[in-house]
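Exercise: predict the fold of this chain.
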Amino acid sequence: MRFAVLPLALLLSGCTAMGPAAEQFYPAHSATLERVPVILIPGLLGSRLVREKDGVELWPGGTRKLLTSDYLDLALRIDPETLEPVDDGLVPGPLFDGAVGKDFYRRIVHELRIAGGYRLAKPGQPLVQQKARLYVFTYDWRQDNVKTVQKLDALIEQIRLDYGDPMLRVDIVAHSMGGLIARYYERYGTVDVLDGNSFQVTGLGGSKLRRMVLLGTPNQGAVGAVHKFLNGYRVGISALPIEGVATMPSTFQLFPHPLLDWVVNVDGRRLEFDVFDVEFWRRYDWSIFDHRIQRRMDRHRDVWPQQDVFERWFEDRLDRGRGFVWSLMVPAGPVPLVKPLLLGGNCVPTPRRLVFENIGGESVARLRPEQILRPTPGVDYESLMFEPGDGSVTLSSLISRQDLSREVPRHEQEGLEPQREVLVCAQHDALTSDDVLLDALIEYLLAPEPASAAQSAAEAPAT
């Protein structure tokens, strides 16, 4: 794997020991540092959720709740007429930066402040001193990502007001699902393009961005997202139930791209199943189509929608999920896009495929090799079902390099073109505290802007 070569000063000092302000390391670029604010976008579960009317925190809600709650109060209610989520009064609170001894975002915020020289700021505070600011964008991660994109744009516009510069561009550091939000924003701005079949890239958001860091982002989706629809979302020793996951629009937008070979039979042969087709879910009684789940929901109809409403919702969200993953792949044409810095993991076995096994005439999805009751001799299920990554996001999804040309001409699809990629051996949640990745992140943000051709010519010595 390819690793970036970092400046000697950064490698010798290490992130935790850098201490002095970034101007000491990059004195010639302090103007750039002072001019460009940074927005940190966390991933799924990365923002605390609080009840607006009384400030009570429902996610994560303290260690005890994190370990024992079923989090039914996070399930979104659904309007049976519009098939839109009903406002439940929950709003994003502070960053969920760590819990029970685990660091999610504390370290990255610390290093941006200490090693990067950024000052934490809140939107709506006019700039008094010309210092680089760090804004943390928390959001309701349950909602459709396009809604979140619209809130991101509102934050950027407020930052422009605070800086007194209507043309100001910002840098974005995005983790996991936050990277998908940033990429959609870059391509389409606040426009919702998911209800049609045409994805005309406009670059409306990209005009407001200077640089972008994607940290563990599933650019081609994640098979692990399908796992959550079959097992629920494990939190501590409890889990958000399967039906709860199905009420959250964003979770559908994390599914693997429909052209990926994400499911095979027990012999290792590819199966032509469309994860975004509701009939596939009905056929195999998955998620809310499972009769056991339906009986469980019947006991709490004050929480869950009627079955017909839930099924119509599910189909609608699958359609939007399909549109979302396609919208990030279509070629941008002449529209210039930011070449991001890709940071991620490359050594942890990560779910890549499900295996369907026929037992007594019924096809059963296997998530792990040890679940297969009648393995086919000679089939390497570990390699078939897993590939290197960070445990949640495969390397091929991060770098968007897997061939998707099975049904679509190559000229109609586009991978991700990064400025460079830096890969380490780390779990998904540990990427935000990895020394090598944080060094690369700071170096990338503080590097000077490349001179334009005209500027280079003007500054060249006369001959």
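Check your answer against the key: The two ends are 44 Å apart (CA to CA).
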